[in-house]
């Protein structure tokens, strides 16, 4: 605060302005008294004494007047000194104001620099270090900012530590939840396999009983649904048993195998070229992905409509198009579903608690893991169109003979290919209609035989397939027509005397049902 100075402690005190008038008044009164005394002395005959008194009084008056004059001059000098001092103080005050203004500018610039440094520090913290702590990656050190106060820096470091601790706790909970769900899925799958095994034994024991055969089919199919649900849960938990197919499988057969893992398999209509195949390493995940999309298509469309599936070869690979006749989705929900199905945005396990809709998240995980392209759009039939792009590097073109007899079974007994790890789920027998430029005659109704107990025989027109490779931690199995058995049964259930053929191992091999 600036104070204006009106006096200085070194200056003598200023005499009152009434000093001059009072001295003049006293001089006048003294002179009047002297005159009166002189007159009185003259009347009484005092003579020279009166005159001397009058003269003395006059001298005193003159001296008083001189004193008053000197005092007035001194006061004028003091006033002049005061004015000079005020001018000096004003100059000093202006200098101080200028100095304080410069200091204020310096502090303002310093404050701006400190604020900018703090913003950079916090931005690096929020954009780089906190996300790294949340993802449990290596947290980079803080950027060096000399202008940031050490106490503030320490406090912000505490924020990073707190976030890291919360992230670790969240990750531990997620891992515990995933472990529980994977263990549950691995318990459910063997139960499904045992149900299918029991159904197989029952069918083999009574091959001529149509009611038993039909009931066995329904039991086997229901067990396949249970196994698919368990495998989908395992996929959501980022678990993968690592099973493989030995040979490529035509995409039309992939769709048929997938349709065998859903409830309304009879509504699936497939159109495509049997020579377009998926590479062996991606056959099983592709079957599971298509099964989830087919399940959504059948659930979200009227039960009286068909689900049209088209397979075709394109420049960048092969495309599987699935069209349903449902009511479709609005623009917002369709965009959200596309983000999930394509793998661009995968929900956490806790995000699925409310809806319990796991189909599209499973599709997204498989698409991201194996490089499939998945897109959802409006279908010309009024529902939703799902387009699955299999990249060119994962597509193979089969020759005509392979298209007629896809996936020769391995000569290794199935029991040798099984391991203690969760076995792939058996594809529920289903045979959706297939229209293709390359067609094969439908075989006759086979006898129900489990490949778990027999060694598949080679076709009479082909040489035996080479022995299977050594079993990996997951099971190894051969590509066959997974839904062939049920299709033949449904079409020829009343002709049980038909000539039997060798059953398709892929139709009943428990290895087929791991992904359900």
UniProtKB/TrEMBL annotation:
Molecular function via GO: protein histidine kinase activity
Residue ranges with Pro residues bias: 457-467
The EC number(s) this enzyme carries: 2.7.13.3
Domain Histidine kinase/HSP90-like ATPase intervals: 284-392
Keyword Phosphoprotein set for record: yes
Record field: transmembrane: 18-42, 49-70
A GO biological-process term: phosphorelay signal transduction system
Family matches, as Gene3D superfamilies: Histidine kinase-like ATPase, C-terminal domain
Region listing for Disordered, in residue ranges: 405-516
Any Gene Ontology CC annotation: plasma membrane
Enzyme class name: transferase
Low complexity composition bias: residue spans: 409-441
Alphabetical UniProt keywords: Kinase, Membrane, Phosphoprotein, Transferase, Transmembrane, Transmembrane helix
One Pfam family it belongs to: HATPase_c
Reactions this protein catalyses: ATP + protein L-histidine = ADP + protein N-phospho-L-histidine
InterPro entries in the cross-refs: HATPase_C_sf (IPR036890), HATPase_dom (IPR003594), TCS_sensor_his_kinase (IPR050428)
Descriptive protein name: histidine kinase
Source organism of the structure: Nonomuraea dietziae
């Amino acid at each position: 605060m600036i104070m204006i100075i009106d006096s200085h402690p070194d200056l003598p005190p200023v005499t009152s302005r009434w000093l001059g008038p009072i001295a003049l008044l006293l001089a006048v009164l003294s002179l009047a008294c002297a005159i009166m005394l002189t007159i009185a002395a003259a009347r009484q005959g005092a003579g020279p004494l009166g005159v001397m008194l009058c003269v003395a009084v006059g001298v005193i008056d003159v001296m008083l007047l001189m004193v008053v004059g000197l005092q007035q001059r001194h006061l004028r000098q003091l006033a002049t000194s005061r004015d000079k001092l005020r001018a000096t103080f004003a100059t000093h005050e202006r200098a101080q104001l200028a100095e304080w203004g410069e200091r204020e500018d310096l502090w303002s610039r310093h404050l701006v620099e400190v604020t900018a440094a703090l913003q950079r520090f916090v931005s690096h913290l929020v954009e780089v270090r906190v996300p790294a702590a949340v993802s449990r990656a290596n947290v980079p050190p803080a950027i060096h900012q000399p202008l940031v106060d050490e106490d503030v820096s320490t406090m912000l470091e505490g924020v990073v530590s707190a976030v890291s601790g919360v992230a670790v706790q969240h990750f531990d909970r997620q891992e515990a939840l995933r472990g529980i769900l994977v263990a549950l899925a691995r318990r459910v799958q063997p139960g499904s396999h045992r149900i299918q095994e029991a159904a197989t034994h029952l069918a083999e024991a009574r091959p001529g009983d149509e009611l038993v055969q039909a009931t066995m089919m329904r039991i086997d199919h229901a067990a396949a649904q249970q196994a698919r649900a368990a495998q989908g849960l395992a996929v959501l938990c980022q678990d993968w048993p690592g099973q493989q197919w030995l040979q490529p499988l035509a995409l039309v057969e992939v769709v048929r195998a997938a349709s065998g893992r859903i409830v309304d398999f009879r509504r699936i209509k497939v159109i495509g070229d049997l020579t377009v195949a998926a590479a062996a390493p991606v056959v099983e995940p592709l079957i599971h992905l298509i099964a989830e999309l087919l399940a959504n298509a059948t659930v979200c469309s009227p039960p009286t409509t068909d689900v049209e599936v088209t397979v075709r070869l394109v420049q960048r690979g092969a495309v599987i198009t699935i069209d349903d006749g449902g009511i479709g989705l609005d623009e917002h929900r369709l965009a959200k579903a596309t983000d999930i199905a394509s793998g661009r945005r995968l929900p956490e396990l806790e995000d699925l608690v409310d809806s319990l809709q796991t189909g599209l998240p499973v599709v997204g995980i498989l698409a991201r893991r194996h490089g499939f392209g998945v897109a959802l759009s409006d279908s010309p039939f009024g529902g939703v169109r799902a387009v699955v792009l299999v990249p060119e590097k994962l597509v193979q073109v089969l020759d005509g003979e392979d298209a007629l007899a896809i996936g020769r079974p391995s000569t290794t007994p199935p029991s040798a290919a099984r391991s203690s790890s969760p076995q792939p789920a058996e594809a529920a027998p289903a045979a959706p209609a297939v229209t293709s430029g390359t067609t094969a005659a439908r075989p006759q109704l086979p006898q129900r035989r489990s490949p778990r107990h027999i060694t598949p025989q080679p076709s009479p027109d082909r040489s035996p397939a080479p022995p299977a490779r050594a079993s990996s931690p997951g099971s190894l199995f051969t590509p066959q027509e997974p839904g062939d058995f049920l299709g033949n049964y449904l079409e020829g259930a009343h002709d049980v005397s038909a000539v039997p053929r060798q059953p398709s191992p892929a139709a009943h091999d428990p290895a087929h049902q791991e992904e359900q």
